[in-house]
Amino acid sequence: MYIVELYNVKKIYKSGNREWIGLNDVTLKVEKGEFLSIIGPSGSGKTTLLNIIGLMDSPTSGHVIIDGKDVTYTTEKEKALLRNKYIGFVFQSYNLISFMTVYQNVELPLIIAGIGEKERRERVMEVLKTVPGLLELKDKKPNQLSGGQQQRVAIARALVTDPPIILADEPTANLDTTTGQQIVELFRDIKERLGKTIIMATHDLEMLKYSNRIVYIRDGKIEKEEVK
């Protein structure tokens, strides 16, 4: 069963009299529980594609279907509810809040979702145990952590609402090769152990060996796909 479906998605950006194509007639289907890597050079459309799948942006034309529901023309409020239910985001720059502890950073999405304190604590502690090496760091601040540890916190934060889809935008770009491979191995483990669908954008060929399928994108178009 497909959890993400894009049909003939086009995204045109405009600035003054200029316009350029971010995505050009992209059709893509992602199966539930798949680990998909999207690879392409800078400016190829990887982030635009993730933003449209993650309902952070809307296509100029085409259709976006999440878990069988056409979400292309939903309101911003509906998109926010759908994001909270279906999507966990992991970013290149971690996006942790510097004055909050690891525990508080992971807890934040649950506060936003209106989850009660007792359930929040149970869920945060569970996810801190799920992501290796985090439980003993729960009272640390981000500036006390290595880059790899910060990215693990970001992954825990993405998991805490139990979304079926994790979107990772260049999650290893700020890490050395060994740490980057550990992070991608963690994504593979999350897919296998928790049944999550992982969609990762990268430009690093080293990180592709952990995914089930690779989509190559250039100039906003999918050039080819490779199933492993």
UniProtKB/TrEMBL annotation:
Entries under SUPFAM superfamilies matching the protein = P-loop containing nucleoside triphosphate hydrolases
Keyword Nucleotide-binding annotated:
yes
Residue ranges of every copy of the ABC transporter domain listed in the record: 4-227
The GO cellular component terms are: membrane protein complex; plasma membrane
Which Pfam families does the UniProt entry name for this protein? ABC_tran
Q: Which domain of life is it from?
A: Archaea
Note the Gene3D superfamilies from the entry.
P-loop containing nucleotide triphosphate hydrolases
Task: List the molecular function annotations (GO) for this entry.
Answer: ATP binding; ATP hydrolysis activity; transmembrane transporter activity
Keyword terms, alphabetized:
ATP-binding, Nucleotide-binding, Transport
Listed InterPro entries = AAA+_ATPase (IPR003593), ABC_transporter-like_ATP-bd (IPR003439), ABC_transporter-like_CS (IPR017871), ABC_transpr_LolD-like (IPR015854), MacB-like_ATP-bd (IPR017911), P-loop_NTPase (IPR027417)
Protein name, UniProt field: ABC transporter ATP-binding protein
Q: Which residues form a coiled coil?
A: none
